[in-house]
Amino acid sequence: MTSISYARHGFPPAVIQHAVWLYLRFCLSYRDIEDLLAERGLDISYETVRRWGAKFGPRFARELRRRRPRPSGRWHLDEMP
């Protein structure tokens, strides 16, 4: 798998990854993410977050699904008091 290139995006990869992670992990709108980043002093428009989600989102989602533990045939039940 080739690494993701963040060249010519104007923001550090950590900021881009965090914005896309917020969008994929939580049920937030692009404008909600824009507001969250603005609270942290980052002036990023919702349209930029949308473009990052369209460009990097599928690869991030694939990686998150790949890391998720696989279900097994064994069940674990909690004890009830």
Automatic annotation (TrEMBL):
<dbReference type="InterPro" id="IPR052183">
    <property type="entry name" value="IS_Transposase"/>
</dbReference>
<protein>
    <recommendedName>
        <fullName>Transposase</fullName>
    </recommendedName>
</protein>
